[in-house]
Here is the input.
Amino acid sequence: MENSIVRTRDVKRVYKMGDTEVHALRGINLEIYTGEYISIMGPSGSGKTTLFNMIGGLDKPTEGKVYIDEVDVAQLDAYELAWLRCRKIGYIFQTFNIIPVMTALENVTLPMTFAGLTSDEAREKGAMLLDKVGLGDRLNHKPFELSGGQQQRVAIARAMANSPAVILADEPTGNLDLNTGSEIIDLLKEMNDTSKVTVITATHDMKMLSASDRIVWIRDGRVDRIEKRSDLEIEEGKIGGVTE
Amino acid sequence: MPEEGRIVDETEMRKVGKQIKLPWSKAVEIAVKSMKIRFGRSLVTTASIVLAIAFLMSILTSTTLITSLKTEPIRQVILHREIHEKAQQGFDVSLAFPEDLALEPTRERVQELDKAVKAPKISALDKRLGQAELAVAKLELDVLLQSEPSRIAQDKAKWPILRTKADLVRVEGKWQLLWRKLQKEGYTDVELEIRPGTPTPPRMGFVNMLLKQMDARDRWLALLASLVCFVGIWNAMLMSVHERFREIGTMKCLGALESFIVKLYFLESSFIGMAGTLMGILIGFLLSMVRAVSAFGIGSVFENYDFSGALFSAIGTLLIGSLLSVGAAIFPARSAAKMDPVVAMRVDE
Here is the structure.
């Protein structure tokens, strides 16, 4: 059996809003294996985002356990959590979140700086990563000089900075047009193939399905079903119907 | 499982390591960058600091200026004209000055007088006397203001004598009026002269020294100005935290520790504070000098003014400005550091 990189055991998450309790997650059991490309899908309010934050170590479960690389996230202190976010997880956001005051290269080297690399090492590695995402000629551009697609490429390079085990992409194509979105998906897939990094995306984008190894459908805080791509290709017509 | 014979570092054994603390230099680098890009906004914040500090500085410099202009220990302030010249024009100068001062005021003579009179500290009685004299002096100045300029210049015996250091400040406006009136009539060589005089070096506690130099109204205004400045920085930093929630969240997602975010905000605020304070000190000093020169004449200011006093005020003001700007950043920096990294995921706004 493959190694699991992310494992959730009966994860529940309850938000208190005044007197009412909102059950965002009602017991999620999920195992994600190293090198997989997973898409988490579900309508808004399904608990998709909560689960996603949980996997990314950004939120802690009310009940149950989340293991990232066999480490119980709830047991970690602030320093260990920061370390985990820095080295084990690469985040990609819908809004790109490129630090506006820094150049593309500086954005990519920032997590390396946090990891303690020297400037020279970081710059060299950063340039290599930016070259890999096709921005080798735009190292010193500021974010406002880059298009949305280019910014997301910088974000992907930044997420790869410390060779993480997992890339978490939250709606990575949400703010992009169709073509650029496809390019970003292709790039994520390429990273997944070449670097063997586990990619986990939360998305509404149907284009993402063809790239994913498995699709986890979330509904009402529970895993509705998990589909493999191999099943999917056969039932392609049906998938469209489901999301209507 | 680590392979046998391979050196396994501690982090690998423990699976999860502890995030390292970054050096200040990195924080400085990033803070400077983000200041540069928000230059316009920073300028508005800086302006409020500049104004507040300039005000504080001008009060302090004016008061040190007055302190150095006043005489110790005799505390005699007299209006002096070019005696010999006027005597040649037929004025009776002997009326205007006590005999020992009616000579040309050379530097040697001033020093001699200074040594000769080593009076004890002013007693409470002296103080009350001083208050009474101040009232008289004000009346006398009023009378002078009503008189003909030629008579003013003539009857120097009627010119007031001021004894306490604050008195000069209090009659400053009237003295200016009088001086202008005389100037208008062609008595351009009228100058305020103080003798004998050496300013007392500050020996009390620092805060006391600063406070002693201001009267109650100035203290109140200075406090208000500092408060405005404090709230200004506080608000600007808080705004910058709210505006940059995504940036802060992202940095935390990338592995920034809370302490790093705190450093970032403290640095930014102290840079703004420093720049504003330095500018304020310069502007405040220049303004108070202009004011002093227009009131007392350029010669008397530059001859008597003790510039080490100005330096002292500048250092004090710099300290106050830095304390204000760093103090005002405490809460915003904390709220930035405590920010949940999840905010980076937010799509709205």
Remarks:
- Residues 178-195 of chain A form the longest helix (18 residues).
- The two ends of chain A are 36 Å apart (CA to CA).
- The longest strand of chain A covers residues 4-17.
- Confidence is low (pLDDT under 50) at residues 240-244 of chain A.
